[in-house]
């Protein structure tokens, strides 16, 4: 019920993860259709980049203003920080405060004067401003680090490497918020170099009990996880896409013209294959480098046909092998019979 600085930076991390989820799924999905020259009706979806900017912008972001308050000389309190937020973020559509220049929330009794509210991707969250400045400015003083580094115990000395006189840095240590922001940026950079797979877990109830399904809770999770938008984009587009070469290699045994070898461009081979199988034209599209299949049922049909064809090919190989083995044995027996008969006639 009471959200402070810790929950604020956790929700900031969740926003960044949601942002990269949008970048790597919804946005990339639609951009791929454009790259491949596929006819496509663009689907609008909410991009939470505006919320991330509200928090992490280097000039007007909440974290930047919090750091500025921590470094500012004079009397600095949580109230002065909130006052600064009310001045800078007053007109932002995802920031809400009773004391801001914007009078939209002046009569909102659900929002205390000492709090501000952010409309996150997952919904609105109210933060109690008390403790923000102290928690962000939670620094380990230099003289304490030096005292710990001089300890005789090796473990304590290893825990405070910044106390080493040879590594003394006269710069002010970074705040907790700036450290967390740098860590999140490193995480995002690392994720963008990978090919992540997303698994969305849905809690059926808050009791962690079996056989209880809370429909309202599940619907709420589906909305704030962005699954509805993801499903809308997926259903409006193509469920499966694959480069022409591996597609032809996987399904070429389904067509006599492409089996066992296709002489020509891979795209032409895929066209011949799909025409031979009689797949409706509305179920697939040819891109510049990939084949796009709209309905999963079409893919399941291809897989079933391939499975049956592999069984037929295995039967054919087994039949040929058994025929070769029996003929080889027959020829050997015939040769032996001729040898025995010739020797018998010689002594008869």
TrEMBL record:
Source superkingdom: Eukaryota
One GO location term (cellular component): microvillus
Ranges where the record places region Actin-binding: 184-206
Annotated coiled-coil segments of the chain: none
Stored SUPFAM superfamilies: P-loop containing nucleoside triphosphate hydrolases (SSF52540)
A molecular function GO annotation: ATP binding
InterPro entries listed in its UniProt record: Kinesin_motor_dom_sf, Myosin_head_motor_dom-like, P-loop_NTPase
PROSITE patterns, alphabetized: MYOSIN_MOTOR
Myosin motor domain mapped to chain residues: 1-307
Gene Ontology biological process terms from the UniProt entry: actin filament organization; actin filament-based movement; endocytosis
Keyword Nucleotide-binding listed: yes
Record flagged with keyword Nucleotide-binding: yes
Pfam families: Myosin_head
Keyword tags: Actin-binding, ATP-binding, Motor protein, Myosin, Nucleotide-binding
PANTHER family listed in its UniProt record: MYOSIN (PTHR13140), UNCONVENTIONAL MYOSIN-IB (PTHR13140:SF277)
Family designation: Belongs to the TRAFAC class myosin-kinesin ATPase superfamily. Myosin family.
Name by which UniProt lists this protein: MYO1B protein
Gene coding for it: Myo1b
């Amino acid at each position: 019920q009471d959200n402070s600085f810790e929950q604020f930076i956790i929700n900031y991390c969740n926003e960044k993860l949601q942002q990269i989820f949008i970048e790597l799924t919804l946005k990339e999905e639609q951009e791929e259709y454009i790259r491949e020259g596929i006819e496509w009706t663009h689907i609008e979806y909410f991009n939470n980049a505006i919320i991330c900017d509200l928090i992490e912008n280097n000039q007007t972001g909440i974290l930047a203003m919090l750091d500025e308050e921590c470094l500012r000389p004079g009397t600095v309190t949580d109230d002065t920080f909130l006052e600064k937020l009310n001045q800078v973020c007053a007109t932002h559509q995802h920031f809400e405060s009773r004391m801001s220049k914007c009078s939209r929330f002046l009569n909102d009794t659900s929002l205390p004067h000492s709090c501000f509210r952010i409309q996150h991707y997952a919904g609105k969250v109210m933060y109690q401003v008390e403790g923000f400045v102290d928690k962000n400015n939670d620094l380990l003083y230099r003289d304490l680090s030096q005292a710990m580094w001089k300890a005789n115990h090796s473990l304590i000395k290893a825990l405070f490497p910044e106390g080493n006189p040879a590594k003394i840095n006269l710069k002010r240590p970074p705040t907790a918020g700036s450290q967390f922001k740098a860590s999140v940026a490193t995480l995002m950079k690392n994720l963008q170099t990978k090919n992540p797979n997303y698994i969305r877990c849905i809690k059926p109830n808050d009791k962690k009990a079996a056989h209880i399904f809370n429909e309202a809770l599940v619907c709420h999770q589906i909305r704030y996880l962005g699954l509805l938008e993801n499903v809308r984009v997926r259903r409006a587009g193509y469920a499966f896409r694959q480069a022409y070469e591996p597609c032809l290699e996987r399904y070429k045994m389904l067509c006599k013209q492409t089996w066992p070898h296709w002489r020509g461009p891979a795209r032409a081979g895929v066209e011949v294959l799909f025409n031979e199988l009689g797949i409706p034209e509305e179920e697939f599209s040819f891109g510049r480098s990939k084949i796009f299949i709209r309905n999963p049922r079409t893919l399941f049909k291809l897989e079933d046909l391939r499975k049956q064809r592999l069984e037929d090919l295995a039967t054919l190989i087994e039949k040929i092998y058994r025929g070769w083995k029996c003929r080889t044995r027959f020829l050997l027996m015939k040769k032996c019979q001729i040898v025995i008969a010739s020797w018998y006639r010689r002594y008869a």
